[in-house]
Amino acid sequence: MPDVLVLVDHDGERVHRSTYELLAAARRLGDPAAVVVGTPGTAARLGKDLAHHGATLVYAAESTEADRFLATPAVDALERAARDASPAAVLVSATTGGKEVAGRLAARLDAGLLIDVADVDASGVVTQVVFGGSYTVRAQVTHGMPVMALRPGSFEPEEHPVRAGERELALPPIDPAASARVTARRAAPAGDRPALTEADVVVSGGRGVAGADGFKVVEELADALGGAVGASRAAVDAGYYPHQYQVGQTGKSVSPQLYIALGISGAIQHLAGMQTSKTIVAVNKDPEAPLLGLADYSVVGDLFEVAPALTQEVTARRAAR
Questions:
Q1: pTM to 2 decimal places
Q2: Phi/psi at 304 (5° precision)
Q3: Pick from 10, 6, 65: which is nearest to 30 by CA?
Q4: How far is CA 266 from CA 52, 118, 309, in A?
Q5: Contact, 146 vs 157, CB < 8 A?
Q6: Does residue 92 sit in helix, strand or coil?
Q7: DSSP string, 211-272
Q8: Which of 189, 200, 177 is nearest to 258 (CA)?
Q9: Cβ-based neighbours of 146, under 8 Å, separated by 6 or more
Q10: Is 143 helix (H, G, I), strand (E, B) or coil?
Q11: How far apart are CA 56 and CA 249, in angstroms?
Q12: What confidence score (pLDDT) does residue 200 get?
């Protein structure tokens, strides 16, 4: 079967869940080949976990400058691997950085580009969320190699142990004048909750939370469910919650098993980032809120009464196990 290139998302020590999702999707199209871009030794540290999830080949695209520039090293590595292997497709995660890599790579390879892919079949036909979440369409690349950016949470990671080979992939020198350089790194506080794009449960608050203090009920419900906290753009713009937790077209895209929206009206910008969630629960005191029509379960009521009641019930049931 042809190789399918997968760009590995990692922190240098750990492979992110989104990569395991990409490997599961890649097996529908061919043999997954993982491309690790990092400093020397990174591929060796991550190779075992990648092979355990189905990567039959690991490309080690390593250099001392790999983590000093944005996007360019990943684009260079994928381009060289693609020209070397002539893969059936190239898959990246549809994060902000992943979409930039996908677009630049498609331009270099004169390839077809598919963004925000929520599903893909063995023939390469994908399901996409397009036009800010207004439409869900089925599409297929008809010119060149498909470059796909897959929405995090759309595929279930699968253990699929194989023996993986390793191949070195030399990165070309980077032109600092034509690339964005990383001048500093500062870790965002993560706490004990799962990462927003990797969580099986996400509880988000919107304008209806009415302030930063109001997000306490959102956090308590998320913690009871073992989930992550999200926020709408309106809540973020109002200063209720930090920007890195924004869900939507200009924030993060999520597809958890359960998405609970508290006080979120459901503007199209927000729907673009969460409408592929498996089960959606919406709580809003406005019966005309658009999100109530999309949700699997809708509650018309005061979130400050409904959310604590949910938290209490979840906590009681877990304690009774």
A1: 0.84
A2: -75, -10
A3: 6
A4: 39, 20, 23
A5: no
A6: strand
A7: STTTHHHHHHHHHHHT-EEEE-HHHHHTTSS-GGGBBSTTSB----SEEEEES----HHHHH
A8: 200
A9: 88, 89, 90, 111, 112, 114, 124, 140
A10: coil
A11: 34
A12: 93
Query: What is the SS3 string spanning 148-204?
Result: EEECCCCCCCCCCCCCCEEEECCCCCCCHHHCCECCCCCCCCCCCCCCCCCCCEEEE
Q: Which of 221, 224, 217, 218 is nearest to 204 (CA)?
A: 218
* Stretch (H or E) spanning 299: strand 297-300
Give me the percent of the chain exceeding a pLDDT of 70.
98
Question: Is pLDDT of 114 > 90?
Answer: yes
Length in residues, the chain:
321
Task: Express each pLDDT in 33-78 by its tens digit.
Answer: 999 999 999 999 999 999 999 999 999 999 999 999 999 999 999 9
Distance between start and end Cα atoms, the chain: 47
Average pLDDT for the chain: 93
